[in-house]
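chain below, 296 aa
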Amino acid sequence: MDIVSDTTSYCAQFLNSKSPSVYRRIIENCRDIGRNALKRDYYVPPTFKKMAYRQYDGTGILAINRTQQEFCARGRRMDAVIGKERVMSTPDLHLAVLVDNSDQMTAWARSVMLGRKIPEERAPLTLAKIATIALFEEIRDAQTKSLIAFGSGVDTYDGIDYKRLLAENGSGCCRLDLALAELLRMRWDLRKGERQLIILTSMPPDTGTGILLEDIGVQEASLIYMRRMIKNGVRILYLPIFTQMELVDTKIGVCSSRNFAQRIHKLGIAVSLIGQSDTFVHAMRVGIKQMLQRDV
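prediction:
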């Protein structure tokens, strides 16, 4: 059994037992998954060059204007001679993860839609939990980390609480638009530095009412919010989780999972499909690499 399949089984056990030993195994496995997916060959935070001024130490060049200012303030002293040079700087990283906790992500809901029993460990929500923990555990350089679970409403985590995340088990319809709106309300997209948003979901947004115009409305709103974030320089990765390909073309509103992902891709957003557990690490690696390579 591979590490992802192993971890999905532990997640299913934890829902029923809340065992501390099972919890530890989940976290340890997620760290290994994150290490394999992100750090093996490419994950390097973006950098840029800027001019740095410091006491002259023989490197770089003299900053005449700064030195004159220092001489006026302190007199002609050697330690008042200022040098300048270009140095590499890493901007602050703000990481946000949106996790779809709607009923459509659970094994129970998928069983009803397909007319047969689906094991809990094959539920898209289980893979979404593993991906979230792996991301937060491996991307440790982020100055801020934000987690929002969304279903019929949004659940904004004040702190990253893995036990609370693992206990999530479906909460109505899929209101991705509300989760994106919450980030905009927080002005998260306007924070200084590098902003990376990762969305883990399955079916397209819906209202749960079955009313066509209402479902179209939340789908279009989600696309509008993502387009606005892109204009503000946010890097976005959309990770649709399709563990049952029979549902990939099931239409909700005017979109199926497949063509909603295609519409997101047309916005210039990185999209990488997470399928069964054997492709999980590869899908994360490819998706994040694409996100980091996007121009903003």
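The mean pLDDT is 86. The longest helix spans residues 20-39.
thats it, cya
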